Amino acid sequence: MNSLNHEAPMWEDAFGISWLDFNLSNVLMMFVASLIVFILGVAATRNMQRYPTGFQNFMEWLIDFIKGIIGSNMDWRTGRLFLPLGLTLFAYIFVANMLGVITNGVVGHTLWWKSPTADPGITLTLATLVVVLSHYYGVKLRGGKEYAKGFVRPLPFLLPFKIIEEFSNTLTLGLRLYGNIYAGEILLSLLVGLAATGVGGFIGATVPMIAWMGFSTFIGFIQAFIFVMLTMVYLSHKVSEDH
Amino acid sequence: MQGFTESLVLGAGGLNIGDMIIQLVFFLGLLALLGKFAWGPLMNMMKEREDYVANEINTAEKSREEAQRMQREASEELKATRQDAQNIIEDARKTAGQQERDILESARAEAERMKESARQEIEQEKEKAVQALKDQVATMSVMIASKVIEKELSQKDQEALINQYIDEAGEER
Fold first, then answer.
1. By CB distance 3.0 to 4.6 Å, which of A132, B35, B105, B115 could disulfide with A84?
2. Greater confidence, A9 or B78?
3. Hey, which family's this protein in (chain A) (predicted)?
4. pLDDT per residue over A27-55, tens digit each?
5. What is the pLDDT of residue A173?
6. Are the beta carbons of A60 and B42 separated by less than 8 Å?
7. Taking CB atoms and an 8 Å limit, are A4 and B4 in contact across chains?
8. Cβ neighbours of residue B128 under 8 Å, at least 6 residues apart?
């Protein structure tokens, strides 16, 4: 259990404001993930050709992949709006998930390098952003009246459930991602702890470690996919005519 | 152990408002920057390629139609030419037949004419010869008769008589 006693590099009561706390490792990892995604995105599209090669091909495949997710949920005419959102969400979450799979960095007793998505606050922020966006686009694309009517459809007594649903959607969307990635990191750090106990522990931990890293990569991809998929589902509930 | 449970429930640090604000700012910033520098150009390029392909297909379709039209025209042209050639040959053959007939006709007419003129000439010659013979026979008869019957008939009477005989003789012939 030693590995779980790592401390977070907290900066509490920042600027003397009592409720403002920063986990500096999260801040660092968010910055790293954003930077990687940005550099990859720009590098892939810096030298574009009509006949795509190499990296551009990959990015176009990614666009088609996200297009497929959107297309399975809503009409492409409205869905086109959300393509940049879906792409950015997918790329950011996937890279963030992978950062913790590659390695967990500990300096002294402080955990600095991990997945930013292994923190509930961060995943809930993303989930809240998505749900708030779905409401915003619901009003913007269908008008306030239609948006409000959506809450009493198909039957008026469903109104309280519909309202609860909005909050539960936010919670499940954020916590699903957090739970998967955090569990992966816990097991990885347990295995690292086992490997650190001695020669026997190292040998015993190597194979499960490799297997679990592979599985975590898979999970990281799947969770990014699910997050984007559910984002589009929630958006389509709000913006599509036939719901 | 309580710390472990707590960290399992809420993660290493729990919910930090600061993290949330920073995540929101980072994500929106990333969304804006990527939209401007990566997705925008990439999607434009994909759109452009789509248009290009559609355009190329249209062009190909058009030139295929054009080629078909030209081929049809060419085959019609060929057919017309072949028809013309056939007509010309037919004409030539007809003209040649006509000429052949004309030549034969005129040759035959010419031959006929020549034959006719030859016959007339012969007739004339014969007429002349008969006339000459008649004259000569008359003269000789007169001479003979005058020698035979010099005394009984005058020259004049004898001649008339002989001519009468000769005419009779000539008519019987």
1. B35
2. B78
3. Belongs to the ATPase A chain family.
4. 888 888 899 989 988 888 777 777 777 78
5. 92
6. yes
7. yes
8. none
Q: How far is A121 from chain B (nearest CA, A)?
A: 5
Q: What is the DSSP letter of A213?
A: H
Please name which of A124, A119, A61, A115 lies closest in space to residue A92, comparing C-alpha atoms: A115
The mean per-residue pLDDT over the stretch B17-30 comes to 86
| CB-CB neighbors (< 8 A) of B16 in chain A | 10, 21-23, 26, 121
| DSSP H stretches of helix in chain A | 24-45, 54-71, 76-79, 83-102, 120-149, 159-195, 199-239
pLDDT at A192: 82
Cα dihedral sign, A167-A172-A178-A182? positive
Over the stretch A139-181, which tens digit does the pLDDT of each residue have? 988 888 888 888 887 788 888 888 898 899 999 999 999 999 9
What residue segments make up the domains of chain A, in order of their start?
2-239
Instruction: Give, for A10, the enclosing helix (H) or strand (E).
Output: strand A10-11
Determine, for residues B20 and A121 on separate chains, whether the beta-carbon distance falls below 8 Å: yes
Q: CA separation (Å) from A181 to A175, B11, B13, B99?
A: 10, 11, 15, 109
DSSP bridge pairs for A7: A110
Is the Cβ pair A22, B18 closer than 8 Å? yes
As a whole number of angstroms, the distance between CA A225 and CA B95 comes to 91
Residue A232 near chain B (CB below 8 Å): no
Compute the nearest-CA separation of A105 from chain B (Å): 14
Q: List the beta bridge partners of residue A106.
A: A111
Q: What is the pLDDT of residues B118-136, one digit of tens each?
A: 999 999 999 999 999 888 8
Q: What SS3 string covers A42-53?
A: HHHHCCCCCCCC
User: Which ipTM value was assigned to this complex?
Assistant: 0.80
Nearest C-alpha of chain B: how many angstroms from A207? 25
> Which residues in chain A touch residue B13, judged by CB atoms under 8 angstroms apart?
8, 10, 21, 23, 26, 119, 121
Q: How far is B35 from chain A (nearest CA, A)?
A: 6
State the Cα–Cα distance between residues B118 and B112, nearest whole angstrom: 10
Decide if A70 contacts A79 (C-beta within 8 A): yes
Q: Give helix B17-34 / helix A120-149 axis angle, nearest 10°.
A: 70
Cβ of A34 within 8 Å of Cβ of B48? The answer is no
pLDDT confidence band for B5 (50 / 70 / 90)? very low
Q: Is A161 on the interface with B (CB under 8 A)?
A: no
- Does B137 score more than 70 pLDDT? yes
